[in-house]
Amino acid sequence: MRDNIVKEYALENVTLWLISSEEVSAEELKEMHRLCGVKRREKTERIRPEGKRRESVCAGYLLYLLMRRFSIEEEPVLLGEGKPVFQNVPEVHFSISHSDGFVVLGFGNRELGVDIERVKRANLKVAKRFYTKEEYAYLLETKEEEQGDSFFRIWTGKEAVVKAAGCGLSVSPKGFCVLGEEAELEGVRYALWRKRLKIGGRAVWICVAQ
Predict the structure, then answer these.
(1) Of 29, 202, 22, 15, which is closest to residue 119 (Cα–Cα)?
(2) Which of 57, 96, 156, 157 is 20 to 30 A off residue 195, Cα-Cα?
(3) Per-residue confidence at 201, pLDDT binned at 50, 70, 90?
(4) Maximal C-alpha separation, the chain
(5) CA geometry: angle at 73 spanning 111 and 38, to 5°?
(6) By the 8 A CB rule, do 118 and 197 touch?
């Protein structure tokens, strides 16, 4: 396995590991699959689209690295709203996201959520339905050629906050604003860290909420 296959970004309280699944060779993917946990291997074998299967294997490999780092032997379980946790190691918090060939895992010592999205054309219909009035106005005020960036800057923020809160689809994305460096959801404030990256000619937004 190449040493640089996983890119690391160290924040104040969070570490991010990022893989471009499309750059993983067939041999590397095979080795990653071997290192995945039993449940992850079973899951990947049910996935038919090759791109999605690659992302799932890479996500399982990042989980393997996380478990090895903290000497965790149990596989994570999903809570009611789909939040993954290590039941017997509650001090290790993590979140996984993947989109269009990119997979990211964030971990730290507090509740957190992470989301990654490849920058594409802004969807104004989706924004009008799910963004606050302030967020939608911000998007409309952005130059048309920059709207995709603005759209996914906001979208990743909302996804990250919802993941950190562990509330899934039970909370409306329209109920909280993520334009600033903090967001509040159900009385809890979350710090937001965002970064726009360009990898292999493709732009992505990453947001961490903690």
Answers:
(1) 202
(2) 57
(3) confident
(4) 50
(5) 100
(6) no
At 187, the pLDDT band (50, 70, 90 cuts) reads very high
Six-digit token string for 142 = 């952005």
For residue 197, give the 3-state DSSP assignment: strand
For residue 104, report the phi and psi dihedrals to the nearest 5 degrees.
Answer: -130, 140
Q: Say if CB 33 and CB 24 are below 8 A apart.
A: no
Non-local (6+) Cβ contacts of 52 within 8 A are none
SS3 category, 80:
coil
d(C-alpha 145, C-alpha 154), whole Å: 16
The tokens of 46 are what? 């049910």
For residue range 1-48, list pLDDT tens digits in order: 888 999 999 998 999 999 999 999 999 999 999 999 998 999 999 999
